[in-house]
């Protein structure tokens, strides 16, 4: 994540080192001021140098601070951009396997931790150089005092190296709990009606609060370790100041050390606090940042949809045969899973309404997922205009199909936004035309799409699919009961579309089945029978039972 920002980091490092150098020189110049003062030499020059050092050091420090702050925001933005892009390029089924709320927290919360970590590498090098530089200059001033300082630094370093990794571990655990919190919260809010109707508010909120408490507990553990690390480093510095003061005063008393050297040395000891706290801070930030980066990198496991096929001379596509065809298609949802469909042969003619029926789990939705390329066949092939899917890009295929989902038919936004979702350039007239096609002419397109009834929502989803008359309409009919008006509107639209294009429905309603030009009966992942209602009703046992379950019973007027 840092790699693309190498140049900014290098500049940050150089600025940091320059600020460090100014800081390192200050005690020596102070000693020069003191020596000049006691030696009666002209004070103007050393004081001027000291003032310049302070101003230059401050200016460089300010520049570096702003630079690194901007870098941090850029890294968070880069991470968010790449995750969001990844989500939208991911294979649908891979993405749907993960809880939505958790996917959201990776973008919102995990990336936030990268903020502090982004400057930590530069900070670490800076602090390391500052620490070594300070120690060297201390050695130049007085070796025995340096030995006392080193002893303190080594003790502090040993304790820190044992404690710091625990911060990263606690942070990872905290972020995992935040992910669980996001997933549970999102799921519960989405099903808030069921939660309330089941009087499960307390239970659900309890679960979510438990995840929040877990996150807090882990973060508190991280905070405690950080506090201990800080306290140890500060106390270490303070103890060494006392030790150095004592040893220094004794050596000055013996005449082995000038007072100005002791003052300069003590200034260095105080300056040690800078690099030591910087080291501590940056190591802590690095630990949490690495934990977050690890969780973000896990997202690489989400498979991406293959990029578009290389441009090759397109064989003339045939407009004579069926628009879509499945030839011996077998597909499964995972390497371990049993095939969801096996050896499916199916043709969708250019005109007319094809209804797919079958018991639950027969593979109806899987056929739609294959047609929309959410799932790729393991064996067999799918053809569009007589050309295999592999020769078309995903976008080409989807551009020819319009799809109405069964469950979540509207997107956030107004009704007009929803209608223009596939074709953002649709005119107001086109929007009005599709609204009247689904018998929603009276509705205000500026209304929120979620502020309408369930039946109206289904009609909005259908209207979106009908805008710009798609060649093939794939309609997964809602299983929920809808009002007569909605049912009639859907029926009319299907009939209308079937007169000039192809309509494929996963039919859950008797009226839809009866309306179809041909019906495909799926059972256990295979095509069991195909034909018209009358043929199938007479010849196929399963079809008869399915239709009877749709409450046609033995009413022969339908047969
Ligand atoms: N996302 C998925 N991951 C794993 N297995 C799945 C997934 N979706 C469906 N299956 C399995 O594939 C088989 C066919 O499912 P499919 O959803 O196509 O049936 P369906 O006929 O549409 O059923 P329903 O009418 O209940 O929606 C079932 O055995 C099901 O368990």
How do the strands and helices of this protein lay out in sequence?
Elements: H1 6-39, H2 44-89, H3 92-96, H4 100-118, H5 120-141, H6 143-190, H7 192-197, H8 201-253, H9 259-297, E1 324-331, E2 341-348, E3 352-357, H10 364-371, E4 379-384, E5 387-388, H11 394-400, E6 401-404, H12 415-419, H13 428-437, H14 454-466, E7 472-476, H15 484-500, E8 502-506, H16 510-515, E9 518-523, E10 526-531, H17 533-539, H18 541-549
Parallel strand pairs: 3-8, 3-9, 6-7, 7-8
Antiparallel strand pairs: 1-2, 1-4, 4-5, 9-10
The structure holds adenosine-5'-triphosphate (ATP).
Structure write-up:
It is a single chain. With 559 residues, this protein is of the alpha/beta class. It folds into two domains: 3-298, ABC transporter type 1, transmembrane domain (ABC transporter transmembrane region fold, Up-down Bundle); 324-549, Rossmann fold. The chain is built from 18 helices and ten strands. It has helices at 6-39, 44-89, 92-96, 100-118, 120-141, 143-190, 192-197, 201-253, 259-297, 364-371, 394-400, 415-419, 428-437, 454-466, 484-500, 510-515, 533-539, 541-549, and strands at 324-331, 341-348, 352-357, 379-384, 387-388, 401-404, 472-476, 502-506, 518-523, 526-531. It has a six-stranded mixed β-sheet with strand order 6-7-8-3-9-10, sandwiched between helices. A hairpin with a 2-residue loop joins strand 9 (518-523) and strand 10 (526-531). The structure holds adenosine-5'-triphosphate. It is found in: Cell membrane. GO terms for molecular function: ATP binding.
């Amino acid at each position: 994540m840092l790699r693309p920002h190498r140049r900014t980091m290098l500049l940050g490092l150089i600025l940091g080192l320059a600020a460090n150098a100014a800081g390192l020189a200050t005690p020596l110049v102070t000693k020069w001021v003191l020596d000049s003062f006691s030696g009666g030499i002209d004070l103007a020059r050393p004081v001027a140098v000291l003032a310049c050092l302070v101003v230059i050091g401050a200016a460089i420090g300010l520049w570096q601070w702003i630079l690194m702050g901007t870098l941090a925001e850029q890294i968070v933005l880069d991470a968010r951009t790449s995750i969001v892009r990844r989500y939208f390029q991911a294979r649908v089924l891979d993405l749907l396997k993960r809880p939505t709320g958790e996917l959201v927290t990776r973008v919102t919360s995990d990336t936030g931790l990268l903020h502090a970590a982004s400057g930590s590498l530069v900070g670490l090098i800076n602090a390391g150089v500052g620490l070594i530089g300070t120690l060297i200059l201390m050695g130049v001033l007085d070796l025995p005092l340096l030995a006392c300082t080193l002893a303190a630094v080594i003790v502090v370093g040993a304790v820190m190296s044992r404690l710091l990794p625990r911060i990263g571990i606690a942070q990872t655990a905290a972020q995992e709990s935040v992910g669980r919190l996001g997933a549970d919260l999102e799921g519960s809010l989405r099903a808030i009606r069921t939660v309330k109707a089941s009087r499960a508010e307390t239970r659900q909120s309890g679960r979510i609060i438990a995840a929040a408490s877990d996150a807090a507990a882990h973060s508190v553990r991280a905070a405690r370790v950080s506090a201990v690390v800080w306290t140890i480093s500060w106390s270490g510095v303070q103890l060494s100041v006392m030790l150095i003061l004592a040893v220094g005063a004794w050596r000055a008393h013996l005449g082995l050390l000038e007072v100005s050297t002791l003052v300069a040395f003590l200034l260095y000891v105080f300056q040690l606090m800078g690099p030591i706290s910087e080291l501590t801070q940056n190591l802590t930030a690095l630990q949490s940042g690495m934990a977050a980066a690890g969780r973000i990198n896990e997202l690489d496991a989400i498979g991406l949809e293959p990029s578009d096929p290389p441009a090759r001379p397109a064989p003339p596509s045939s407009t004579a045969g069926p628009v879509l065809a499945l030839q011996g298609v077998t597909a499964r949802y995972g390497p371990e899973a049993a095939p969801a469909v096996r050896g499916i042969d199916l043709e969708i003619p250019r005109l007319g309404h094809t209804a797919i029926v079958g018991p639950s789990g027969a593979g109806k939705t899987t056929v739609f997922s294959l047609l929309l390329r959410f799932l790729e066949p393991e064996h067999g092939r799918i053809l569009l205009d007589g050309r295999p899917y592999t020769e078309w890009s995903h976008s080409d295929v989807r551009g020819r199909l319009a799809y109405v989902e069964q469950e979540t038919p509207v997107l956030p936004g107004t009704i007009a936004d929803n209608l223009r979702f596939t074709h953002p350039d649709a005119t107001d007239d086109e929007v009005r035309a599709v609204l009247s096609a689904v018998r929603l002419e009276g509705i205000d397109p500026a209304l929120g799409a979620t502020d309408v009834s369930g039946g109206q929502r289904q009609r909005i989803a259908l209207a979106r699919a009908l805008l710009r008359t798609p060649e093939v309409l794939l309609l997964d009919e809602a299983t929920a009961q809808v009002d007569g008006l909605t049912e009639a509107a859907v029926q009319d639209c299907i009939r209308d579309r079937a007169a000039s294009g192809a309509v494929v429905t996963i039919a859950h309603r008797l009226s839809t089945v009866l309306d179809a030009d041909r019906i495909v009966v799926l059972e256990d992942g295979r095509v069991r029978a195909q034909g018209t209602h009358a043929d199938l009703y007479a010849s196929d046992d399963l079809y008869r039972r399915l239709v009877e379950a749709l409450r046609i019973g033995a009413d022969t007027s339908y047969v």
